[in-house]
Structure formats: C-alpha cells, structure tokens
Design a protein that fits this description.
The complex is a heterotrimer. Chain A contains eight helices and twelve strands. By secondary structure, chain A is of the alpha+beta class. In chain B, the strands form ten sheets. In chain B, strands 1-32-33-34-35 form a five-stranded mixed sheet, with no helix packed on it. In chain B, strands 2-38-37-36 form a four-stranded antiparallel sheet, with no helix packed on it. Classes of the chains: A alpha+beta, B mainly beta, C mainly alpha.
C-alpha cells in the first residue's frame, strides 16, 4: 500500500474513532440499562457490517491487483458467453453469497426485534417513578406523578431521577409532534398531541445526561434540549423535597425589589413562582429556577449574565421562541436577575 | 283591613289547612305532615322576606286564593320596567306592603308602594357598583335578590360588596367590601340573614378565585367569619366538631392535600348560590362551585372542597359535616344548587333530609343532620355517572366521559348540568319537588388554561346541544320519598326560571321565550299562561296585597348564562361562545329580545 | 419567432416576479422587534363619527402587521394565552361582546382595537397597557381583524386542530360515530 493512502486511511480511522470517546449526549456511551442494550446492538451491527464491508471491498479491489495467469485474453468477437464451467462457478458464488446475506439479515432482524422488545419492555415494575413530559414549542414541561396530589411537582427542562430505579416517561404534547430523546439513557419516543406515549429507562450510574428534541417542531427545534440528572436515591429525595417547597421569600431589599419587578410586569402572564401570586402556565415554572443547570431549554448555561441577556432579548438567542420581549428599565433588570437567581 | 282581622283570618286558614294536611298525610303513608309548623320556620304572613321564601327554601306560599280551579282567570295587575337590558334573575321581596326589587348591574334597589294603585316608586337606591365589574361576571351581570331583616334590606353588588339599606327610607346603612374584581371575584347571590348575621358567598369559579362564604354582622357590616372552600383546615373552618359521614371526606388539610402545590389558591369552590338553614339543628347548608380550571388535567387530585355540600354553624362558621359530590370535577358540575329542607318518610322511616338537585343530574336526598346520602337518582339524562355508592358516598363516574386535554363527545348532562341555579319549589301538600331544569349534552375539548388574575381561567372549548328527545328544557314534578318523577312537561328552551308552588296547588314558572305559566301541581296540566315582553329567568313569588288579594310577581328580562346570546348580543356563528351555550341557543334571538320588566298577576 | 418567444419569456417572468413580491409582506418574519416598547395609551384613534365644525382629515394609524402571516399567527396564539378567548370565546363573545361583528362600540379600525386593548374599556375590558409590549398588541389586532375578514386570505391562519365551532350541524345522538 502506498504511504499516502496509508496515511489517509489512518486519519480516517482516527476521526471515526474519535466519536467513540465523546460521552456527551452519546448513544455509544450508555448510562442506562436500555441504552446499553441499544449500544450493544449498535456495536454488533457495526462490527458485523464493518466486517462485511471490508470483505466486500476486498473482493472488489482484489481484481484490480490480481494478475490472472494462464488465460489468454479472448477476442470479443469470438467469445460472447462465458463457459458453462464459469457459469456454474459464478452461480455457486452468487448463491452462497445471497444465502449468507439473507441469513445475516434475518439474524439482524431477530436481534433488532429482541433489543426493541427489551428496551420497550412489557410492564414497568411496581415501584417505578412516573414522570409526565409535555413538549411545547420549544421547551419541556415536566410533572412528577404522585398519588398524593400535593406531592405532584411541576418543573421544566430538567429531570432528576434516582439511579437504579425504573423511570416511566409519559409523553404528551401541547402543539406539534416533538420527540423525547436522551441518547445516554434510551431511544427516541415521539410526543404526539392528543395522545400519550410511554417509554421507560433506568439510569445505571450517576451523571448528567443531555437530551434533545428529535422531531422537527419549528423554528427552534435545534435549541429544544433538556437535562436528565441521575443521582443516588438520597440526593434525589433531597432534591425532590426542595423542589416541592414554594419559592423562598426574598430576604434582601435588592431581591425584594426584583420580586416586585417580576410581579408588576408581563412575567406573571406566563410563569409560575409558587409562593407568590404568579401562576401563569403558558411558560416554564420558575419556582426553583436557580437550581437548574441551564435556561431556555438547555440553550444557555444558567448564569446571571446569560439570564440577563435572555430576559432582555430572548429573540436574539432563540429567534421565534414564544417568550415576549418584555421592555424593562435598566434599573429593574439587575434586581430581577438577582431575585430569579435566588430561587434555589 | 286591620291587622287583628288579618291575623284571625290567617290563623283560621292555618288551622284548617293544617288539619286537612294531617288527614291527608296519615291516609297516604309517608309523605309530609304539618308542613307549616315545622318546615317553615317563620310564620307565613303573606309576605316574601327572602328569595327562597323561608330558611328551608321551599318557595311554597300558603296563600290559596289562587287555586287550580281559578288560575285560568289570572290577569295582569300591573307592571314595572327597570329600564335595564341584562338578565333579571332576582326574586322580588314583599315586606310591609312594599315591594323591593334588585336589578342586574348596576344593582339598583327599587322600593314600590303596594298600597297605592299601580305600585308607584317609593324610592330608589343605587350602590354605585363599579362599571368594570361587568368584566368579571361569567354568566351575565345578574343578581338573585335581597333579604329583609330587622327593618333593613340586605343584598350584594357585582363588585364584591354587601349593602344594608334602610327598608323605609332607602338610606344606606353600611356597605362592606369583601373581595376584589382584580382577583376575578364578583357576587351575584342572594344573601340570607341568620341569627343577626348576613351570609354572603362569592362568585368566580371561572376566574380562578378562591371560593368563600362569609358572615357579616347585620348591624355593623363587619366580617364576623369567613370560611374558605379550599386550603388548610383553619381557613376552611374545619375543627374538632367536623364529622363528615363518609371516609373520603375525612382527613387533615384535605383542602391542600387533594391539589397539586398551590393549585388550591386558584381552585374555585365559590359559594355563589343558595343557602338554607335549620334552626333546630342550628346548621346552614350550602354548596361550593366547580373546581378551576375546567381542564381537570391541570389539577390532579380530588380538589376538595369544590363541588361540596357543607353544613356549618351560623354563629362561628365551623363546619359540622361536608360531602363532596363531584370529586375532581371534570364537567363544571358545581355543587351550589339549592338544598330544600324537608321532613320525609323514606322507606318507612321519618327522616330530616335536604333535597339537592345537583348539576350532575342527580337528586340527592341527604340526611341533614349527618350528611348521609339516602338516595341520588337521576332526574335528567345522565351518562357521566352510573350511580352513587350509598355506603361510601362515591360517585361512580363513567371513564369514557372523563375529560382532559382531549375531546370528549356526547357528555350528558352538559356543563349547566341537569339543573343549574334555577331553584326548585317544594310543596308540603303534595310532598313533591318542582324542578325547572335542562336537557342538554355537550362536546368538551380541554385546553391548557393559563392563569392571569382578573381574567378567565377555564381551558375548554365547549359546544352544547339538546339532549335526547330534542327539547332543551323540562319542568318535572319529582317525588323525593320514592325517588321518581311524577309528571313532567317538556320545554323547547332550558327552563331557566325559578319555580313557585302554592297551597292552592298551582305551580308557576317562566320560559326563556317569555311565557309565564301556571300548572296544576298535581297533574301538570297547563292552567294558564301569559306572554311577557322578554324571556323569563327570574324567580316567581306570591304575596298578599293590602287589598287581601293574592298576587304573583315575576321578573321578565332574558339573560343569565343561557340567555347570554341575547343579553350579550353574541355572535351565533361561534358555537363555543358563552362557554358553549350559544351552540344550543342560536334560535333564541328570534324568540325574544332583552328588557327587564316586573309583571304582577292576580285574579280579576 | 425567437423575438416573440423572448418577449413572452420576459413577460411571463415579469408577472411571476410581481406576484412573488406580493408575498413578501406576507412572508416577512419579524421576530425581533426593535426596540420593544411597552404599549402605552394611544390617542390616535377617533371613536365618534361626529366631527364638530366640519370634516377634518386625520392620518390613519395602520397596523404595521397588516397581511403578515407570522404576526396573525402569533396573534392567534396570544389570543388564547392572554385569555382573550375566556371572555370573547372564538370570536362569538361570552363575558365580553363578540369580536366578529359589524357594529363596534369603540370602533373596529386597527387603531381603535389597539386603544381598546391598551386602555381597557369602561364596561369590563381590562387594560393591558403598561404590561404587554406594543408589538404583541398589534399582533392581536392583526388577528382580530383576520377574524372579521379584514386580512388577505393568504395570510389568515388555517383551521386549527380544535373542535369545530360552527353550530349548524350538531345534535345529540347517543352512540353516533362523530
């Protein structure tokens, strides 16, 4: 093999393999039971089909280099058909190749179906955690189901789950078809208006897993992300207890002023902060906004600077999203951001 | 006529009819006995001092000058125009030969002098109710009437005030504000006065208000107690004396626990309709409205204490028992309809009961001392529930008719229920309950509701239409002891007026296209009818005039929720208008216009 | 021959270009109004037809979002988000008057509608001014005008995926497949 070809081959291989190293929002870095099964299937497919690919390529390339000895090139006019011997040989090769291909395909189908069944499961175990995820353009409303109505938690864009416990996701949509996809944990499940779709997953190790809407849903489909944070049970319980509490009353004059800004502007038309009179439900619940990793459905890291920029001009960050550009005086912005960042 | 003469005649009449009744009752086993003495806690003196006539809410007049024999000769005595064009739902009051009329917003109070021919105006009082309050009234700017007590007239204004007006002079004694229209509150109900306390409940179940019932001191107007319908027990005035009959209503702070966090603060449960009182048991009875929003998916849980019947002590407001009729209400089945107190013989036993025709189409017969449900049979066509389990009190709902963020069709009864606010009347003579009611079904599409204070919090597209049979209304005579209908008259439009029944065995009600009718209370035969100037949604009353004649008075003036298409000038191309009622009433504008006028009838 | 077909080609493409231009206004997506102002009380709209002292010209205040499909669609969304539908239903009215009509109490021109939303009205219309930004009021105005057929059909929103509100056809039939 020529050196240049070898070099480019090596480079290609390296680029190809680099995808494997990244675990961020990656299906080949499974952190959950179902994702593991999908990943196993994926690697198996890759290996098998990769081998077949190499084989086929080899067969295709070999004639270019192979010098066939002891056969005279026949004049075209004299011989039109291959000999019966050649025909038989060819027939055998094609027959075997087709047969093997069919068998391989059948095997792949069987394995796919088995994996599909395994990841979808039949019935979730009795102690599963049920979470309702409602897709809206372009954010996720999350509601933790509970028989005790007063322990039903409504939050947005971030899901915490205990490690090792089966989580049942009930998917709904308020407007168009979205798709719930956490690559590290499970496959995709569409959220369809007027229907409830379900899937479940089980995180096998703690971590932060990014998810993404996987069905084109409008202008900001690309920026409709969410985070699933798997943590040990005790930390999950602590998180849940904190989230169920209403928002802490602002304790400094600055945050108190910020709360007044919130309540006297159009914010209350769309957002809820439990513990205040704001109970709007068109947009995400902000009661514990400061406890989240990101804002604007995974678009920006949750920092004061980003939050200030988002409130001042949401359309420049996520053009077309449904948050109104609410005019604020400059002296109102700082207290408002301080107040919102105090909502732990 | 001198008062002593009048008294003698009255006494004589009382005595005669009492004995007649005793005989009748003992002959026909089981029905009611000496009605006047016990059921009507105030002596009937030919007056009408509260909207429901008496604390038992029977709307029964003992006057029998007009009877089934001569009702056909009734003629118009005089009329009075209020000059207003919204729904006139009030019951006129007649006290000391003066008639008191409360109008829809601007909630004027007229006093008419009945001693002079043509009943001229004595005085007019205007409370200057806020004009903007018209924007928080879900179902027309109506008012259901006043109450008389101790020389004063008490009534509520749309902008959440209660006023006390001197009955002689029309001077305002006090005016108390109880809430704010900025929160979406309003008041349309007729108060009652019990033990010197004026009982008032708010409206606004469609605006995400927090419902309450309050008691004001009749002399000063100060708020003595306020019982909320949702929230922790200390707000709902649930204390150690609280003994609900059924296990589902027992527990601590159910008004918080049966809601997602904070949803109870905007959950409805307003007490916008009727209150009854039993002086022997010392209990007031009233119901609370639907839960908010209409889209039930936003409020999982039983949503206590919406759609609930409460029994409370009038002095302190503390709850003695409660029964939630429609847990996690999904169809706007308010629990606010009237509770008629009656003593009936049920299955061979004498029981002190209340009769409650609920929005869910069932007529509840409930032991008013304990809250036990004795029967709950359907008086209208019902497919949202199959029965009430009498052991647990549980309403067995039909899962296919459960609403949420989806479209459900053919839901019966529709949101106005088998019967809405329009009050029934009970005759101790026949022992039957006379129900003006609806026959409506609906398609219901739940939508995500967004809460903005001061604006509606509903979350539904609704279309109503006539139920089986094609008639949208019905007037039924119901035998509560045996839980069955005796006779009924179908009506084209919902029978949205109140009912009046008299000792003369005549029952009165009005139709939405303006016919005021008199029927034989025993057979349902139409005895007489009169076409008034506008559809009737008011409450008929009867009184004895200064000339000793018996009069029947009724407000005509179409409106209310069912008449909104006319009183609001709504567009009939949009069937979802007026929360879906317009779909069922597109023909009403051809049958009536607006126009509030009081009509008074008597024998020639 | 060549000359004629070339003219035809030019004429055809010219016509296509002009018709495409007509769609420009419909297609413009102004996602980021600058600057965003809070809607304030406006006095531009006349509400009475009586002009004392004789007629007088007044500059019409037009809706900047006339025939803009995105704005009308946003107006439709805001109509239900801000609970306009709670009082006005789908145009037929309920607590408030219908919005599909010919006789407007306070005027039905875009400027009048803007004033109504921003200032509120005495008989119960809430005052939204001072809270929602001006561009959203104009979006609502554009939508309300579209309900009344005052916007080009090409820009008016399609039928929504909700139950139909035309009352013509509905009647009860237990078990009927609808």
């Amino acid at each position: 093999m020529k050196p240049r070809m070898a070099a480019s081959l090596a480079l290609g291989l390296a680029a190809f393999c680099s995808g494997c190293a990244v675990s961020y929002q990656s299906s080949v870095d499974p952190a959950g039971t179902q994702a593991e099964q999908i990943a196993v299937l994926w690697w198996f497919f890759l290996a098998l089909l990769g081998a077949i690919f190499v084989l086929v390529m080899a067969f295709a390339v070999w004639p270019l280099f192979h010098r066939h000895r002891g056969v005279n090139p026949e004049a075209l006019e004299e011989r039109h058909e291959p000999s019966r011997e050649t025909e038989r040989k060819l027939g055998r090769v094609v027959g075997w190749a087709s047969g093997i291909t069919v068998l391989i395909l059948l095997a792949l189908i069987v394995i796919s179906v088995i994996t599909g069944r395994a990841t979808a499961g039949s019935e979730p175990p009795r102690d599963h955690l049920a979470i309702e995820v409602t897709g809206s353009q372009w954010w996720w409303s999350v509601r933790y189901v509970n028989d005790d109505a007063s322990r039903i938690l409504t939050t947005a864009n971030e899901i915490h789950v205990p490690v090792g416990r089966t989580v049942l996701i009930r998917g709904l949509s308020h407007d168009v078809i979205h798709s719930f996809w956490i690559p590290n944990l499970q496959g995709k499940r569409d959220l369809i208006p007027s229907r409830v779709t379900t899937e479940w997953f089980q995180a096998s190790r703690p971590g932060r897993y990014r998810g993404q809407c996987a069905e084109f849903c409008g202008l900001q489909h690309a920026k409709m992300a969410l985070w699933v944070i798997a943590e040990p049970s005790d930390r999950y319980d602590a998180w849940m207890e904190n989230q169920l509490k209403p928002a802490a009353a602002p304790s400094t004059p600055d945050t108190q002023a910020g709360q007044q800004v919130f309540l006297s502007h159009a914010c209350v038309f769309c957002h809820t902060i439990r513990g205040t009179s704001a109970a709007g439900q068109a947009g995400p619940d902000l009661t514990h906004l400061a406890s989240r990793l990101t804002i604007a459905a995974g678009t920006l890291a949750n920092t004061k600077g980003n939050l200030a920029g988002w409130i001042t001009d949401p359309q420049s960050i996520k053009p077309g999203n449904h948050m109104a550009t609410v005019p604020l005086r400059s002296e109102d912005l700082q207290p408002l951001v301080d107040y919102l960042e105090s909502l732990q | 006529m001198r008062s002593s003469e009048r008294l003698r005649t009255l006494e004589g009449r009382l005595h005669a009819s009492c004995c007649r009744m005793l005989r009748t009752a003992s002959l026909i086993f089981g029905l009611v006995f000496c009605g006047m003495c016990q059921i009507q806690n105030q002596p009937d003196d030919g007056q009408w001092i509260m909207a429901a006539k008496n604390y038992s809410s029977t709307r029964f007049s003992t006057l029998d000058q007009i009877n089934s024999g001569n009702a056909a000769t009734l003629k118009l005595a005089w009329t009075f125009s209020t000059g207003l064009t919204k729904g006139h739902e009030a019951a006129p009051l007649i006290v000391n030969n003066t008639m008191y009329l409360v109008t829809p917003w601007p909630n004027l109070l007229y006093a008419l002098d009945l001693t002079k021919p043509g009943a001229p105006l004595k005085w007019k009082y205007t409370p200057h109710a806020s004009r903007s309050s018209q924007g928080t009234a879900c179902c027309d700017v109506v008012n259901r009437g006043a109450a008389y007590y101790n020389g004063r007239i008490y009534y509520n204004t749309l902008d959440v005030h209660t006023v006390a007006v001197d009955a002689n002079t029309g001077r305002e004694i006090w005016k108390t504000q109880l809430g704010s229209i900025d929160d979406g509150e309003s008041i349309t109900m007729a108060p009652i006065v019990v033990k010197g306390k004026v009982l008032v409940g708010n409206s606004g179940g469609e605006f995400g208000v927090r419902g309450w019932l309050a008691a004001l001191d009749a002399d000063t107007g100060k708020i003595v107690w306020r019982a909320y319908s949702t929230g922790p027990d200390k707000d709902v005035l649930i204390g150690p004396s609280f003994k609900p009959f059924y296990a589902a209503d027992r527990g601590k702070d159910l008004g918080v626990k049966s809601w997602p966090a904070d949803a109870w603060k905007i959950g409805g449960g307003s007490a916008w309709s009727w209150i009854s009182y039993d002086p022997d048991l010392d209990l007031i009875y009233y119901g609370t409205s639907n839960a908010g929003p209409w889209n039930a998916d936003q409020r999982p849980g039983d949503n206590k204490w919406t759609s609930t019947l409460f029994a409370r002590r009038p002095e302190t407001g503390e709850a003695i028992w409660a029964y939630q009729m429609n847990p996690h209400d999904e169809h706007d089945y308010d629990g606010v309809n009237e509770n008629v107190l009656a003593d009936l013989n049920i299955k061979g036993q004498a029981r002190k009961v209340l009769l409650h025709p609920d929005r869910n189409g069932r007529l509840y017969v409930i032991d008013r001392a304990t809250g036990e449900v004795l029967s709950a049979e359907a008086f209208a066509y019902v497919n949202t529930s199959t029965s009430v389990d009498l052991k647990t009190g549980h309403l067995n709902t039909v899962p296919a008719k459960s609403t949420g963020l989806k479209t459900v069709r053919d839901i019966c009864p529709a949101a106005p229920g088998g019967k809405d606010w329009q009050p029934s009347a009970f005759s101790p003579k026949t022992g039957w309950l006379y129900l003006p009611h609806n026959n409506l079904c609906m398609d219901f599409e739940g939508l995500q509701a967004n809460y903005i204070s001061g604006t509606p919090y509903v979350g539904a597209n609704v279309r109503m239409y006539a139920g089986p049979g094609g008639n949208r209304g019905e007037f039924t005579a119901w035998d509560p002891a045996n839980a069955r209908a005796v006779w009924s008259v179908k009506e084209t439009f919902p029978a949205w007026s109140g009912a009046l029944v008299t000792a003369g065995d005549v029952v009165f009600y009005g139709t939405m296209d303006g016919w005021f009718k008199a029927l034989d209370a025993r057979t349902g035969k139409l005895l007489w009818q009169f076409k008034t100037g506008s559809g009737i949604v008011g409450q008929p009353v009867s009184y004895r005039g200064p000339d000793n004649k018996q009069y029947i008075a009724i407000f005509a003036g179409v409106g209310g929720w069912s008449g909104a298409v006319v009183s609001g000038g709504l567009n009939t191309q949009d069937g979802s208008a007026a929360l879906g009622f317009v779909n069922a009433m597109t023909d009403l504008p051809q049958h009536t216009n607006t126009g509030g006028t009081l009509y008074v009838f008597s024998l020639p | 021959m060549f000359f004629r077909s070339r003219n035809l080609l030019l004429a055809g493409s010219g016509a296509a270009f002009v018709s495409l231009l007509a769609g420009c206004q419909r297609e413009k997506q102004e996602l980021r109004p600058r600057p965003a102002q809070v809607a304030v009380y406006g006095d531009a709209a006349r509400e009475s037809e009586i002009q004392p002292g004789g007629p007088q010209t007044q500059a019409a205040v037009n809706n900047p979002f006339y025939s803009n499909a995105l704005a009308i669609s946003e107006g439709q969304r805001l109509f239900s988000w801000y609970n306009c539908s709670g009082c006005h239903a789908n145009g037929g009215g309920a607590i408030g008057p219908p919005l599909i009509k010919k006789d407007w109490i306070y005027g039905g021109e875009p400027a009048n509608l803007f004033d109504t939303i921003v200032k509120g009205r005495p008989n119960g219309m809430p005052a939204w001014g001072g809270r929602i930004p001006e561009y959203q009021v104009w979006q609502l105005v554009a939508y309300i005008r579209s309900l009344n057929g005052e916007q080009p059909k090409s820009a008016t929103p399609e039928r929504q995926d909700h139950i139909e509100t035309n009352p013509e056809t509905l009647h009860f039939e237990e078990g009927a497949n609808r």
